[in-house]
Amino acid sequence: MTELDALDARLLLLLSDEPRLGVLECSRRLGVARGTVQARMDRLERRGVLGGFPPEVDLAAIGYGLTAFAVLEIAQGRRVEVAARLAAIDEVCEVHATTGEGDLLVRMVARSNADLQRVIDEVVDVRWVRRTSTSIALSTPVPPRVRPLLERVATDAGTDPIPR
Amino acid sequence: MTELDALDARLLLLLSDEPRLGVLECSRRLGVARGTVQARMDRLERRGVLGGFPPEVDLAAIGYGLTAFAVLEIAQGRRVEVAARLAAIDEVCEVHATTGEGDLLVRMVARSNADLQRVIDEVVDVRWVRRTSTSIALSTPVPPRVRPLLERVATDAGTDPIPR
DNA sequence: GATTCACTGGGCAGATCGTCCAGTGTGGCG
DNA sequence: CGCCACACTGGACGATCTGCCCAGTGAATC
Question: Does Transcription count among this protein's keywords (chains A, B) (predicted)?
Fold first, then answer.
């Protein structure tokens, strides 16, 4: 319920930039007491805002240099089953259920074109998948990020002109 | 040798499960010397496989509960310009350039339907954007993950089973 | 046989961690 | 107006971990 305050946002930003920073360093950089940082982090975790610090693994660096997206159209009412089967494919890294033209949006990776072919085939062959449309990711001009939103909170602080 | 060996994979898996683990704990769990873990981590970082430990921020927990995807068709040769303008929109969290029907795949978040409307308008109004097709994410059956691929390496490549 | 390399196991000083605690605003409320 | 709950400060404690060093072992390479 409680809004994120500016200190929370600054803390998250700081951690985004230098995730290895310890609590002590954070407190120094933010200009607050160590206990405060500790309390804020605990609270953020308890609220579910800060999920943890998962290691960032670069798939490209371990051979999976290709990324592709597939939009799947599936049989009515089979979303759960299809999602489960997609989840069983190692190369499927993300699935969203969506409104609009397709029903599922799938992100997958592969080692080579031939490998991608195999993965796509595997996805397409999933039962109840009616129609698919796949695209290969050529580049990623904006990699996954949350920074801008945090920055807004960190500076704006109180005011909240955005509808809820 | 770009290949990841079984120990590397097990280390990454371990860190995926419990990112806060220190080097010492890792060495204990993996059954190797501390120096070994330290060396492996350094090597993984130097190779770019392990990017770091960015904090995982749950946007839904800070009010941005809606996620939407947009496929943009843009004017020939304007990819860079369009991407730059998209990057300037805070709510745009990810952009990929793709082959296929669309040219750009955009992921964005918003606080409410009205807010989403505003964000979409902002994206659509970007110059050189010809046609767009947006979908709202209703759920995420498979959240972003790399685990299955690591597991494959951890078992395939080595003789060791997965640690306790 | 000699060399290189990764791993082991140990030891060191210094930094950090989790956890306490008293003291200081600051706000809400009877 | 006093009282209380709450958050932050600044300091302290011992336990733990870190970064770094080193000698020794085994395997693979030259």
Answer: yes
